[in-house]
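Schema walkthrough. Field components (list of strings):
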Amino acid sequence: MAGAGAGTAALVAGCGSKPLRLKIRSGSKVGRADVDVLNHLLDLEHYAAAAYTAGIPLLQRPMLKAAQQFLGQELAHAEALSELVRQAGGHPVKPRSRYELGQPRGPGEVVALLQRVELAQLAAYVRTLPELSFGKVRSAVAAIFANDAQHLAVLGSPTGTAPVSLALVGS
Amino acid sequence: MPAPNATRRELLCGGVLATVGASVLLRPAAAAAAAIAPAPTDAEVLLGVLGIEQLVVIGYRDALGSGVLSAGMSRQLGGLLSQELEHVAILERELRARNATVPAQPTPAVAQVALLRHHIRINPQQLRSQRQWLRLLIDLESLAEGAYFSAISKLQDSSLLRTSAEIMGSEAQHWTALSATQHHGDVGKSVPYPFVQGSP
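Field assembly_structure (string):
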């Protein structure tokens, strides 16, 4: 399964996206030194979007609906991180033309892939958060991290509901 | 007009209350005063977050002691409470490491005043159904998310910053779990937004 780079389709705006964009535009004090970290996280968001895009055709309800919802949110994450990179004077990395996603053969293996992708994102966000400039840019990135934590909670449940197993997410 | 059963988050997203950060909401004079105030220490930030976590623990304990929960709901909330208690223990340990005094658990009366200050107008004494308790707990988890969202922009210590993010992730998962229960697994309701910022 080699997913193509995700497009920039219309996103699930959700209530949370507009206030976060306002925060970004109103000055999250994102600096040039943040560009590399933000682009690393952006690269992972592109990867996640590719995994969801490639996996959705193999899923069934209720996980299908969840994956469609989460794809929209991963694209929103990518857009927000891209905006931060531009604000810092950098150039956002683009989705790759090809991603190696293995060969999931059914819904179970697709969900396992998506769980690994979300876990990788969570670990990267936790590891790199202190490397970002002090202030609101950290909160903006944490807001994305917490949404990915929600994705993992839903993906971890066979019925698409959300069991929660850890007091600390991402460690 | 918001629906009578709307949660705080629904009211916030409906535009009844703005969710933009405090620096935008403050009047100019107040904003100027805030701008020149010294930055809080990590201990001061932790104290604020701990205050919220204490309210969350009280909420879960009161729900579990209410006598209106199903066995399955009691098990779910018991698991979430145990994680909230871990969060409290972590915060208390970090405060002691910074030679700060750990505040005692607030009394019910003090907790009720604190809830009102955070615009949660639900009185736990008047809750009579599982659904009503879920709504309160969802609002409390929103409050916790917001506390960590704010704290993360102010914390200096790298290790503490990471731990706070991990706890914020946990609170977001709690919010999702409770919302999924409230809305029968509807992911549109349990993971509605791409960015988790909680409530002020």
